[in-house]
Known about the structure:
heterodimer, A: mainly alpha, B: two-stranded antiparallel ribbon, globular
Amino acid sequence: MNRRTVLLIAVLGLLALVPPLAAAFNQPFYLDLLRRIMIFAIAASSLNLILGYGGMVSFGHAAYLGVGAYAVGVLAHHGIHSGWLQWALAIGGSALVALAIGAVSVRTSGIYFIMITLAFTQMLYYFGVSFQEYGADDGMRLAKRSQFAGLIDLGDATSFYYLVLALLALTLYLLHRLVNSRFGLVIQAARSNEARTRAIGLSPYPYRLAAFVIAGAICGLAGALWVNHTAYLSPEIMNWTRSGELMFMVILGGIATLSGPLYGTLALLLLEDVLQGWSALPKWVTEHWQLYLGVILVLVVLYARRGLAGLVGGRHE
Amino acid sequence: MILFAEQTLNGLQLGVMLFLMAAGLTLVFGIMNMVNLAHGALYMVGAYLATFFFQETGSYLLAVVLALAGTLAVGVVTEVVALRTLYERDHLDQVLATFGLILFFNELIAILWGRAAIYSSVPAWLSGHLELVAGLRYPLYRFVIILIGLGVAVGLWYVVARTRLGMLIRAGASNRTMVAALGVNIRLLYTVVFGCGAALAGLAGLLAGPIYAVQPGMGELVLIQVFVVIVIGGIGSIRGALAGALIVGMVDTLGRAFLKPMLATVLSPTAADSAGPAIASMLIYLLMAVVLAFRPEGLFPASR
Lengths: 317, 304
């Protein structure tokens, strides 16, 4: 095991200790905050598969958060509360949407890819905004969280927390296996040098498209978790700034590293939380925290190119 | 028929406004190979500065001049401080850094003028209506926007195709190393191009002010439409930007105006009521997907 793996396991272990500590210090807020962070870490990790390993700069990854969230919300709206059904639809629906979007956009590259993924997400966003039946831009409440027939109760904050943690660990493990498989090597090869990949007889398109669909499906799961986390959904989940945030989480943590997106999400959302709410900071900081976040973002991109995972050292995993 | 003519003019008006934004964005991309999300922020800066100076000075023309100069200055400073180092980076870094700039500018505007929309007015001599043909009365201000937009299009064509600066711009777009080797100060050229693009975005913003809401974040809504425009038109091409802008302006405006009644003839009124606006707002993105599927380089690819 290299240093990075040890650190990742340590961080996951610390995350497992949060519920008893939060209970001991009577700070349920942190349980909520870290659960939110872990859900976004799953989404950011899925983005990292295509953005980092695949070299596909998707500026529309929030679409799949939205599809996953709406799959749960719409079924619940029609009185279907079975979690199995809802989550299966969230994952399958996101995969299908990713297949449709990917089929067109993966053919393009560079700036065109960035803009076409953005445009498709906007399309879904406006679809959500104008769909009166499901709340339009006001959104709608989730009357009941996903039901898993006595297996696990998502209404219980601690069990939901551990479920999210387990799913995060599972996602990271699956991505680890995927990236180091033959499939993963092909998408990384296509990122490094497309011409050579073709020359050894591999067409990158189907591999890239498959990676795009897998990333969409995992992100759909994160969307299903998110709507259960907030018990509310609105098209804002698909806002293009959300896609930008997801990208920033990946970059901040360290692109194309297994653990990077988790660290990036932790760092970004904790930073947001501190800038917004830490009472020790003067009011002119907390009130206009986005100003400072913007500056920090620019500085990170300009000067800290390897991200947080790069600090630990070692080769790319 | 009158309604159709009026909506066509509205589409034209939206189209030229999108063109003012798209021209700068597509030049910056074509020459510097740079994705600039902060272009929408400059649009917002233009709108705020014009509104502010109009209130302070009482003279609309003076306010327009000051706002254009102000946006140009903001654009040049942004370029020199932050964007210049990004030209050599990949698109991912550019997207993220300019995304950070958007957060910065939106919040800065919120600090200076508050989060609520501010009221922006048209001077008395530009309000009122114009009777184009019998029965078709069209707002004078919107008509002036169309004229200004078409004027800028002609002017830009002249500058790019007929002047020395335009020659350098075209040369820089096709081979920047060569241009630099021939002794042209390429950094200065970049700054000039960026500043002009910023001023055009500011012009679009100050024209848009009295029609749409002047508020923080106003730039992002139009920015994404402008992306659609330049992708449809072909990235890096001014001609493409004009064609794309007019197409998008028309499709969006006419779609919003006529899709619902058209759907109502085939669907039930309630279905048309809910589906009409949803499809109308997705129309330009659908159009972009179709264009990209058949012409991945856009309608008028920049010749390289």
